[in-house]
Amino acid sequence: QQQVKQSPQSLIVQKGGISIINCAYENTAFDYFPWYQQFPGKGPALLIAIRPDVSEKKEGRFTISFNKSAKQFSLHIMDSQPGDSATYFCAASSGNQGGKLIFGQGTELSVKP
Amino acid sequence: GAVVSQHPSWVICKSGTSVKIECRSLDFQATTMFWYRQFPKQSLMLMATSNEGSKATYEQGVEKDKFLINHASLTLSTLTVTSAHPEDSSFYICSAYARGNGYTFGSGTRLTVV
């Protein structure tokens, strides 16, 4: 119930391509779905987040698509750049209450020049 | 934007000693602090949740006597790894939550126990 399942585990994309990472959850009490980017030896940094009352949110090259009925959400990185090479984590929580933030397993993205 | 300062960024200690890691929200008051542990190539695993002035709530399998959490104020939480052993070597990350700011993460502490 508390798990967030993320795929793929690793992803290789050519520069300029689209990177897509998917996540699924079970707990319908979750109401906050962020994506984090983490570089080696650093803490995770918030990229973009969505709440279940919208189906899509876009910020620059990053887009979250959210499917409430399927309990799935995904991150799309448009025009991927080598600087985007990092590990990406989806997460979920009952954010309004400051609840536990549960992380997916992570996706190691490598963008080839 | 919201900033969380975590210190030290790395520490090496001898087996059997204790290490304290500090997490401080610099420009906001955090209602809740979270402590995570991350092994190489793995995800962040929540260790405990703490609210200012009350005892921390530990996740299943986390030894509360080994990982002491103190949340003395709305801007400061500390994690003390007591009687550290090599298997405690890991990357420890704190997160501070405030309504309106969401979750803000520290930069992490690399603990190596030798």
A few lines on this structure:
Chain A is an all-beta fold and 113 residues long. Chain A has strands at 4-7, 10-14, 19-25, 33-38, 45-50, 56-59, 62-67, 72-77, 86-92, 102-103, 107-112.
3D structure, described in words:
The complex is a heterodimer of chains A (113) and B (114). With 113 residues, chain A is mainly beta. Chain A contains no helices and 11 strands. Chain A has strands at 4-7, 10-14, 19-25, 33-38, 45-50, 56-59, 62-67, 72-77, 86-92, 102-103, 107-112. In chain A, strands 2, 4, 5, 9, 10 and 11 form a 6-stranded mixed β-sheet that branches. A 5-stranded antiparallel β-sheet of chain A has the order 1-3-8-7-6, with no helix packed on it. Chain B has 114 residues and is mainly beta. Chain B has strands at 4-7, 10-13, 19-25, 32-38, 44-51, 57-58, 67-73, 76-81, 90-98, 102-105, 109-113. In chain B, the strands form 2 sheets. In chain B, strands 2, 4, 5, 6, 9, 10 and 11 form a 7-stranded mixed β-sheet that branches. Chain B is globular. Chain A binds chain B through residues 32, 34, 36, 41-46, 49, 89, 93, 95-96, 98, 100-106, 108, and chain B through 6, 31-32, 34, 41-46, 49, 91, 93, 95, 97-99, 102-108, 110.
Please render the helix and strand layout as text.
The complex is a heterodimer of chains A (113) and B (114).
Chain A lengths: L3 E4 L2 E5 L4 E7 L7 E6 L6 E6 L5 E4 L2 E6 L4 E6 L8 E7 L9 E2 L3 E6 L1
Parallel strand pairs in A: 2-11
Antiparallel strand pairs in A: 1-3, 3-8, 4-5, 4-9, 6-7, 7-8, 9-10, 9-11
Chain B lengths: L3 E4 L2 E4 L5 E7 L6 E7 L5 E8 L5 E2 L8 E7 L2 E6 L8 E9 L3 E4 L3 E5 L1
Parallel strand pairs in B: 2-11
Antiparallel strand pairs in B: 1-3, 3-8, 4-5, 4-9, 5-6, 7-8, 9-10, 9-11
How helical, in percent, are the residues of chain A? under 10%
- Note the main sheet of chain A: 6 strands, mixed
- Number of contiguous helices of chain A: 0
Following the backbone from N to C, one meets helices and strands of chain A in this order, namely EEEEEEEEEEE
Mean pLDDT of chain B: 94
User: What is the SS-derived class of chain B?
Assistant: mainly beta
Order of helices and strands of chain B: EEEEEEEEEEE
- Stretches of chain B where pLDDT is under 50 for at least 5 consecutive residues are none
Q: Which radius of gyration of chain B do the C-alpha atoms yield? A: 13 Å
The N- to C-terminal Cα distance of chain A equals 40 Å
